[in-house]
Design brief:
Blueprint: H1 3-18, H2 49-52, E1 76-83, E2 92-97, E3 109-110, E4 112-114, E5 117-125, E6 129-137, E7 143-145, E8 151-154, E9 159-165, E10 177-178, H3 181-184, H4 197-203, H5 207-210, H6 241-252, H7 256-273, H8 276-291, H9 306-324, H10 331-340, H11 349-352, H12 359-364, H13 371-388, H14 392-405, H15 413-429, H16 435-440, H17 448-467, H18 473-494, H19 504-538, H20 540-549, H21 557-572, H22 577-593, E11 598-599, E12 602-603, H23 604-633, H24 635-645, H25 649-661, H26 664-683, E13 688-692, E14 694-703, E15 719-723, H27 732-735, E16 739-744, H28 753-760, E17 764-768, H29 771-778, E18 784-790, E19 793-798, H30 801-806, E20 809-813, E21 819-823, E22 849-850, H31 856-876, E23 894-897, H32 901-908, H33 912-922, H34 931-944, H35 950-959, E24 966-972, E25 988-992, H36 997-1009, H37 1014-1023, E26 1032-1038, E27 1044-1049, E28 1060-1067, H38 1071-1074, E29 1082-1087, E30 1093-1097, E31 1103-1106, E32 1117-1120, H39 1127-1130, H40 1132-1153, E33 1157-1164, E34 1167-1175
Parallel strand pairs: 1-9, 14-15, 15-16, 16-17
Antiparallel strand pairs: 1-5, 2-3, 2-6, 4-5, 6-7, 6-8, 9-10, 11-12, 13-17, 14-18, 18-19, 20-21, 22-23, 23-26, 24-25, 24-26, 27-28, 27-33, 28-29, 29-30, 31-32, 33-34
Helix pairs in contact: 6-7, 7-8, 7-9, 8-10, 13-14, 14-15, 17-18, 18-19, 18-21, 19-21, 19-26, 20-26, 21-22, 21-26, 22-23, 23-26, 24-25, 33-34, 34-36
């Protein structure tokens, strides 16, 4: 085996040793270190600083970082597998093979990422021959297998071994390298007592040095620094703006203080140019590469003592604190600022003194050490530090410390003691002290409460470190809570901001507080990791599900408590604090509420699990948003700056992944995944949700979103889309008339516009949230598959060539078990061509139509239905269900601006000819060259500029006097029809008033213009409706401020059971459901004849849309929702009563309109309002 492979394996062994108990935190915070637990042998040669000065940067691994490494038992061989290969950002590597331990070719076995490659530990049966391959999994869950034959490995009878493999080299000869128990990573038992800080100093490697990737330390006996400088190359091709400014600055900034000055100038300049976020991102990336040695610092540009660096650091720190205290600072800016703080040196008084760090000068002139050692200390550390200090000085000092303490007694105790003190001082200058050291340094500035919180945390931490792996979940939770209490004190102290006249000492102490606050967040990563491994050892999700099955929720307390702490840390870090607080409240409430035998008439265990699942889904969404923010922030800038600054490709590729994996957000996400899996097992869910049932076959194609052009034009025949994301407002067939089915890889409301349209378009629609199933589905991309979806489950299976012709159709399930058949190809839309019910020529209206007088001919089907609803509402209080539940409802008052009003406005504006010309051209406009987009934009611009006739505004003012708030809604002649619901296709503008005629007129013209959006045009084109036949009336109704909004389907959309009404309910306005915000509503089903209520899902929208107290300006505001305070979530009696009332209303309307209905409405106090009903798509 070549030496590179051996070094790679050796590097992985070193990394795994560090990750034994405490994953290396230096990847993202090189300033605060966590000392090794006492069980780790600090005298191993592998921890020599000179080794780590050239090793790869270890990072926190994804799977079981701190497990006890397996010991080779009877009949077992322990194998450490290393794939010496790196992948693109967002991808990861798994291994599959022929044995159960390797997933039996079905289940992916994850490998752990390090900058030296991908690693995993396996325990395999002795003497067997195993086959395996490596697989790269993309960020969209796509998979790429190694090429070539399967790898084959014959295992020995016993022992511990390591192998190093290379991607796509499946025929390479792989050598089994014997490993000792120590090398394999097993812990050497300690002596049971804690070692002092000075003991740890002698042989340990600090995280600051452990993450070093620059040149290794070497000792000089003369001023040879210039002879050791590396040639650097810069590439500014394609750079501009702040990135170019930074790189050009780096060219002339040879030493550390000048590089710090580049950052200071970049930040100050960005405040004037309005490019703050970009400046922060560039600064964070640049400083990290400096601190890891990937951007080297040299002597030059004038000699300055460390006080120069300290002064610049203070300027940068003050600027960062000023930015952080501003209300306008975005979550993204706050996130990046936290990455910068740990990269700045200290500016305490001893470091801003005119001659700082003088102890090293005295050490270098001692007479009790050899002359050669004196020269090495003088030229390697003293002179370098006092002329041009840089991060490499701490690396050299730590290496020297290891050297002088290696052989006790070799050097005088007085010299060694002084060198240790200097090392502590230098660590303090670089802010590289341990978490305990940093916290201890703030004690003098804490009040009584802070001192008590600090003492409690340090005591818990000490006990936890002493207990090592024997620590219980309760001990971990206790430590987490003490940490949270301490961090709250620090964050509270930092909230006051930094005064302009603050003395230097106060600013320096504030920096310590800031670093302690960040370090405490980092330490939560360690605690959460240990708790996760504890639960995995007990059986993970299956163990939790088994306990829930036996009604024992006590076993859930620790993971739920840990999740609450983890989310709280995100809040303290400034990431969406209101959302975090709501999630914390919900999790705490569900934990305290416990499990009841029954909740109302429903099974208590199911309700407990469904309620918890909603909050866990919300938590997972929070972690995804955080990760997406990092992905938007770093990768592009990292790639750009990495190329320009000559950073190794591997460091560039792994930067953002390291930031995600190294943060507490990663452990919160893992904990959330564990709990969600347990909930799904308990509910008997396979991770599937069926929105539109049916059976289809087609080629499986993966896309990011459902948009026109997402399918290859060369693709023929039926298609089943696998879609990563959707906002619920898409048109399926507008993206391709041959789409037979959709598998969406996220949750979605059943009665969303996408769900409604899929039912109407006869497209089978399912969602999947199980990661393993998603991975399996994505492996099938490009293959011809059969998708079967029903209320009993979902199945995706290969479809043979012989079966295609015999079964190339869609079967839509109905309530009686029969199926209808539609030949595949383009949907037959001949029955959908809706002609305008009047001639546009000369049509006009001099006023408005009262809602009671509206009909389809003048006002559209939506307004006509609302008119009839108003009549039905008057008699609904006399109607009751078989269970005596009232079907009473109200309808908001309203008027209609009839068909022809827009055309009249065009005539008055002298724009009719232009309008008709654009309308004719849009009929045949193509998609490929952007012609359609251009014409749609021109049409919308033209119509949006129109002013409704004055007499219309006056008439509405007479009907709605005063400052009443109104909603302006569409009522086109091509919506709310049996064959064309067009749900959500056209605009509605809430919160306007005729008392502000400018805003009101703008709302009317916006709704008119929505007739010509790209999506609306393509929808009509797909339905075979001429664009010239489409016209728009306007329905103006009184604006309500409801507690809840709902959508009813009076025929079960999942299994077409006519006996049930299904409702989806959201908090606040209907815009909560229609806005495309990720999340799910409450879902309930209620029997029309037996009154049986079933809760299908609990709501987890993060925000509810409400009418604000401000002016009627056409806007609504979003308020964070806490479902622990929502009766529909916590009160089973209220949920049961409301479900039955909605069922009674829906059934009454179904009977009156003669067919299943899609009903929209809201709940205000004790009243139910219905604002719309249309034929339910079948």
């Amino acid at each position: 085996m070549d030496s590179i492979s051996l070094r790679s394996l050796h590097s992985q062994i070193l990394v795994r040793k560090q990750l034994r108990f405490l994953p290396n935190t230096a990847i993202f915070n090189p300033r605060i270190s966590f000392p090794f637990p006492p069980g780790i042998n600090r005298h191993r040669k592998h921890y020599h600083p000179l080794v780590f000065a050239v090793s790869s940067t270890p990072t926190r691994e994804e799977e079981k970082e701190m497990d006890v490494k397996p010991k080779s038992g009877r009949g077992k061989v322990c194998l450490n597998v290393c794939l010496d290969h790196q992948v693109k950002f967002g991808e990861h590597v798994v291994i599959l093979g022929s044995t159960k331990e390797l997933g039996s070719w079905k289940k992916q076995v994850p490998m752990n990422w390090t900058e030296g490659g991908w690693v995993c530990d396996l325990e395999l049966k002795r003497g067997e021959s195993v086959e395996f391959k490596f697989v790269i999994v993309g960020k969209n869950k796509s998979v790429v297998w190694e090429g070539g034959d399967n790898r084959v490995l014959k295992l020995p009878e016993e022992g511990r071994f390591g192998i190093v493999c290379h991607w796509n080299s499946t025929r390479e000869t792989v050598e089994l390298l014997p490993l000792s128990l120590e090398e394999y990573g097993d812990r050497v038992e300690g002596d049971g007592h804690n070692e002092s800080t000075t003991d740890a100093l002698e042989v340990g490697t600090s995280p600051f040095v452990g993450q070093w990737q620059g040149r290794p330390a070497s000792f000089m006996r003369s001023n040879e620094h210039h002879n050791r400088e590396l040639e650097r190359k810069w590439d500014t091709t394609g750079l501009e703006g702040l990135a170019l400014k930074l790189v050009e600055g780096d060219k002339s900034a040879r030493n550390w203080w000048r590089k710090l000055e580049v950052v200071r100038e970049l930040l100050v300049g960005s405040l004037q140019s309005g490019e703050l976020l970009e400046a922060l991102i560039c600064s964070a990336i640049y400083l990290k590469w400096i601190n890891t040695g990937q951007i080297p610092c040299f002597e030059g540009g004038g000699h300055y003592r460390p006080n120069k660096h300290a002064e610049i650091s203070r300027h940068i720190f003050r600027e960062l604190e000023r930015i952080s205290s501003q209300k306008a600072t975005s979550p993204q800016e706050a996130l990046v600022i936290r990455k910068i703080h740990p990269c700045l040196p200290s500016f305490k008084a001893e470091f801003t003194a005119s001659v700082p760090l003088t102890r090293i000068r005295d050490i270098a002139h001692r007479n009790d050490i050899p002359h050669d050692l004196k020269q090495e200390i003088k030229h390697t550390i003293q002179n370098k530090l006092h002329r041009n200090a840089g991060p490499e000085d701490l690396v050299a000092t730590e290496a020297m410390l290891a050297r002088v303490t290696k052989n006790p007694g070799e050097y005088s105790e007085a010299f060694v003691e002084q060198f240790k003190i200097f090392y502590l001082e230098l660590k303090d200058f670089f802010n590289a002290g341990s978490l305990t050291e940093q916290l201890e340094s703030t004690k003098e500035s804490l009040d009584e409460r802070g001192i008590a919180a600090l003492a409690m945390f340090l005591e818990c931490k000490k006990s936890l470190d002493a207990a090592e792996e024997s620590s219980s979940g309760l001990d971990l939770i206790k430590t987490m809570r003490s940490l949270s209490a301490l961090r709250e004190v620090i964050v509270k102290g930092l909230e006051s901001g930094l005064r302009n006249d603050a003395p230097d000492a106060a600013i320096a102490m504030r920096q310590k507080w800031r670093l302690c606050e960040i370090g405490l967040e980092d330490y939560v990563f360690v605690l959460l990791s240990r708790l996760l491994n504890t639960h995995e050892a007990m059986g993970g999700a299956n163990w939790l599900a088994d306990n829930l099955e036996s009604k024992n929720t006590g076993s859930w307390n620790n993971p739920l408590g840990a999740l609450i702490v983890g989310v709280h840390q995100l809040s303290l870090s400034g990431w969406k604090p209101e959302e975090c607080a709501a999630i914390e409240n919900e999790l705490t409430a569900w934990q305290e509420k416990g499990l009841f035998e029954k909740e109302g008439s429903e099974d208590g265990k199911k309700i407990w699990a469904l309620r918890l699942k909603a909050t866990l889904d919300r938590t997972r969404r929070l972690t995804e948003e955080y990760s997406e923010a990092l992905l938007q922030i770093f990768p592009q800038k990292v790639q750009m700056l990495g190329k320009a600054l000559g950073i190794p490709e591997n460091s560039v590729r792994t930067y953002a992944e390291a930031e995600i994996r190294a943060g507490v957000i990663f452990q919160v996400s893992k904990l959330c995944t564990l709990l969600l899996k347990a909930v799904r097992i308990a509910l008997g869910s396979q991770g599937w949700d069926v929105l539109v049932p049916g059976v289809v076959s087609g080629t499986l194609v993966q896309v990011e979103k459902i948009v026109p052009g997402s399918l290859p034009s060369s693709l023929e025949g039926p298609v089943i889309l696998v879609v990563n994301k959707a906002d619920g407002d898409e048109e399926v067939t507008a993206a391709g008339s041959n789409i037979a089915g959709v598998v969406l890889l996220q949750e979605l409301p059943h009665l969303s516009h996408l769900g409604v349209r899929a039912r109407q378009e006869k497209v089978v629609l399912v969602t999947c949230e199980d990661e393993e199933k998603v991975s399996d589905i994505q492996k099938l991309a490009g293959k011809y598959m059969r998708l079967e979806a029903s209320s009993s489950g979902v199945n995706i299976s290969p479809f043979s060539l012989d079966d295609r012709d015999a079964d190339s159709f869609v079967k839509n399930l109905s309530s009686n078990g029969s199926s209808t058949v539609e030949v595949r190809g383009t949907h037959d839309s001949s029955g959908l061509a809706v002609k305008a019910p009047y001639s546009n020529q000369g049509s006009s209206s001099a006023g408005v139509i009262l809602l009671a007088d509206a009909d389809a001919l003048t006002s559209g089907a939506k307004a006509a239905a609302c008119g009839r609803l108003a009549s039905l509402a008057a008699v609904s209080d006399k109607v009751y269900s078989d269970q005596g539940v009232p079907a009473s409802f109200c309808v908001p008052a309203g008027v209609v601006i009839p068909f022809g009003s827009m055309e009249l406005a065009l005539e008055q504006n002298k724009s009719s000819e232009t309008f008709m010309s654009l309308l004719e051209n849009i009929e045949t406009a193509g998609l490929e060259d952007g012609e359609l987009d251009k014409l749609c934009h021109q049409l919308q611009q033209l119509v949006s500029s129109l002013q409704p006739p004055k007499d219309i505004i006056d008439s509405i003012t007479r009907v709605f006097p005063g400052n009443v708030r109104l909603i302006v809604r569409s009522s086109a002649n091509v919506e709310d029809l049996a064959g064309m619901s067009a749900a959500g296709l056209y605009e509605s503008i809430p919160n306007v008033s005729p008392s502000n005629p400018t805003v009101f007129a703008c709302a009317v013209s916006q709704v008119w213009a929505s007739l010509y959006t790209r999506r609306a045009v393509l929808s009509r084109r797909a339905a075979g409706v001429s664009q010239q036949d489409a016209t728009m009336a306007i329905l103006v109704q009184e604006m309500l401020s409801p507690d809840l909004s709902f959508v009813l389907h009076t025929l079960s959309p999942t299994d077409h059971d006519h006996k049930y009404v299904e409702a989806e309910i959201a908090p606040g306005l209907g815009e909560t459901l229609a806005s495309g915000t990720r999340g799910t509503p409450w879902r309930v089903s209620s029997g029309k004849f037996d009154g049986l209520v079933r809760t299908l899902a609990f709501a987890n929208f993060s925000e509810e849309m409400v009418v604000g107290a401000g002016p009627a300006d056409g806007e609504v505001i979003g308020l964070t929702v806490d479902y622990s305070k929502k009766p529909l979530t916590v009160d089973p009696i209220f949920r049961h009563q409301l479900s039955q009332r909605l069922c009674a209303v829906g059934f009454f309307l179904e009977q009156k309109f003669g067919c299943p209905q899609d009903v929209e409405g809201c709940v205000l106090g004790k009243d139910i309002y219905v604002v719309q009903t249309r034929p339910q798509p079948q």
